[in-house]
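Section handout 9: paired folding examples.
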Amino acid sequence: MESGEKFMRWALDLARYGRGTASPNPMVGAVVVSDGEIVGEGYHRVPGRPHAEAAALRDAGELASGADLYVNLEPCCHHGRTPPCTEEIIESGVVRVFAAMVDPNPRVAGRGLSRLREAGVQVETGLLEDEAQRLNEAYTKYIGSGMPFVTLKMAMTLDGKIATRTGDSRWISGDEARKWVHRQRAASDAVLVGIGTARSDDPRLTCRLPECPESAQPLRVIADSLARLPAGARLLWEAPERPVLVACTGDAPQGRLEKLRYAGAQVETFQSRPDGDGLDLKSLLHGLAAREITSVLCEGGGELAHGLVFSGLVDSIVIFLAGKLIGGRDAPTPLQGAGVDSMDEVLELCDMEIDRVGEDLRITARIPPMEGES
């Protein structure tokens, strides 16, 4: 099975080429193997284009007959934007299919594998399944819960500050950490910040790495309950062709909404929090999912981060820890808000990992689902 792992890892590597462009579809790669050699390969690029299996089979041509197919996700068996991959696999003459994981989409969910078996194709599942699950965790959550996968990114100093008391935060993290953020923007369907960050930092929220394709630029979302984003904000006029969504509540003054629309922003009204104090973040994320947003990168600030974390809406946290000290009782911290009253109420993180990125330490962790969440 060692050679099988090699081929499945190649399929996983191919799948990653679809990061940032394949959504809302999953990232899928496939390789056709004959006599221990790869004779065809492919990956899913964008919705509406051939799926990975179809691309790999067409690359292999007649060499697919009698060959094995390695794919990181169960082949589809239904008509969507493209024909079912199962039928093309059967017609190609492939004799064995190795699928790393079953597709959680109810339209597939084992039916693709069953169709292949019915046609006499040998099917095996589970090879590098954990890696395959991790690769498409945003897709899996989106399909299973109707909510996007949320990653919270924070950069702070060793004394836990995200800016000075005057609000200056450029730059806490180093060059390599900032490059990681740009890559993560390209990999995410949307980037989310609060109105405080939008006003104080005046960010662009785009991926500015030269290798980033235009199709990988994220939707930029501002949580702005009262429509306080200035019409002259950089993210509106420096990249007007890239969409900006200003998420407001019904309390936002109509005049401000019209100014933002005139400046090119998409303005949408969402529910207020039950206590009436600001935007209901779960309503916002449901609204983003309705736009086929499967993954969201939240870049701050502290109030928004607190609201997401303590509402059970964050799946993954990435903290860049810089070897710098700011000090000051009024300097902001990554999580503002009210916080908890006692240590019995703290959120325990899991799957914590620490590595070095340039000058900074990167800490990644998961937040287990809160009680009552799934």
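Moving on to protein 2 of 2.
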Amino acid sequence: MRGTTRGSPPRVSNAEIFWSWIGAFLGIALVAWVDQLFFKGLDLTLMIGSFGASAVLAYGAVRSPLAQPRNLVGGHVLSAIVGVTCWKLLHQYPWLAQSVAVATAIALMHATRTLHPPGGATALIAVIGSTEIHTLGYMYVLIPATVGPLILLAVAVLVNNIPESRRYPEIWF
């Protein structure tokens, strides 16, 4: 409630906007293409909503600690494990499963230094997802929560190192 009067955040250059757009387009497009190529017609999906938020970090905030590979991949994987476990143990109480999943995912990401805000959504999706998501069980940890971030990471490493003004990752582990 005690905000500052500093004004708006600083503008980024047009080049930064361009490379953020290119990275996000290519990263999400590759995940979607692999999803269509390998998972169309199956009860598996490689695309989940939390990857959109990961794209913001990995391509739009490349220097953020929250966007680094350890956080990008580790945050999704740990959160998926937590989400599936909460669904399996607490599905008869959806409100409890949802809140325990997100809160526990945050705590575990903090404890393991893998804090990645979209991980909270990955945990929540494991609980509130469709029957197909629930049927995946712990396969959800692998597909989509490991493979998807690895694809986003590969694109981030390639695209974010093209311009001189960017370097990614800042740290691997």
